[in-house]
Amino acid sequence: MKDALIVDAVRTPFGKRDGSFRDTHPQDLAAEPLKALRERNGFEPETIEDVIYGCVSPVDEQGLNVGRLAPMVAGWGDIVPGVQLNRMCGSGQQATNFAAANVMAGQHDVLIAGGVEHMTRVPMGSDGDDENPLTDTYFEHFDERTHQGEGAERIAEEYDLSRDELDELAVDSQQRWGEAWEDGRYDDQVVPVETELDGETVTVEEDEHPRPGTDLETLSSLPLAFREEGDGFHHPGNSSGIVDGSSALLLASEDAVEEHDWEPMARIVQTEVVGVDPVTMLKGPIPATEQVLEKADLELEDIDLFEVNEAFASVVAAWLEETGASGASWEDTNVNGGAIAHGHPLGATGAMLLTKLAHELERTGKDRALSTMCIGFGQGVATIIERV
To answer: For this structure, is 55 an active site residue?
Structure first.
């Protein structure tokens, strides 16, 4: 089996809802990481054998196969094929895992994987969540349908988590993003985007959602988002931000790396996807982590850095409780801030998490990292990478 190497990884800044990307077409946003990867790595479009892009709401402006349209909008002509996939919140990470599998199997040598989500122009649920409810047959097999917010609330109850604990995690996430941004840790991975806003040309250079000055007092005053006051845990301050953004990784085989004189950042070691209870729905990172480690013949102690997507604070807290006794700790997890701070542009997030890890391994000289995400209707995805 061949090695799948991460040559480079980038993302756009994440614009807040109705922020600086509100007039930017999703196809243009999707093209930005592709243009940056080409500029940074000096390849011709025909070098790319496929583009695999995740997108959770592939309708309206994000329809028509945004994976195929992104390289065309990037100016690469008609030679580069592309495909869009939807594994809900895990789409960008699944796109990367599928691309890696292609390289490992010897089917392709150079691919780009990533994702895009413009949550302002194509709001969450636009793909029919409300207009096309589940078939009655679904309820012959499952008693109840919940939304993700309610799933997060039930996880908090199951693990006996308090709102204060979740708020503390959220404050840490915001502060970590602020420290990382000020320290320049995002400089090599976040590429500026020139776009039109209200008829004027602007350059977006920084994430717009983070509030690094957030404190516990501020969060304690926010109203609950999913339940009545006194009966819940989650609010906008300890849940992921709704943002617009895209991300992508350049993946290649060892032969391609040598041919193009590229210096790879990391190797994809192992990938995994699991199914879990669709009611609580968001516990997938726990078995996904366990199973990807088992497949890689590694222990948790062998991993130096973790990204656990902060869809909701309880998801990360539950993962830490289940894995903490075996070596995982908050100090090694989401070290540069997570989705509570920078936001969660659904289809782009998974590729962005792997981008963060590849750059952080390179910056710190550490060896291995693991990314995992919860997914709607009860799934989990995980990827292990190691520095080369």
So the answer is: no
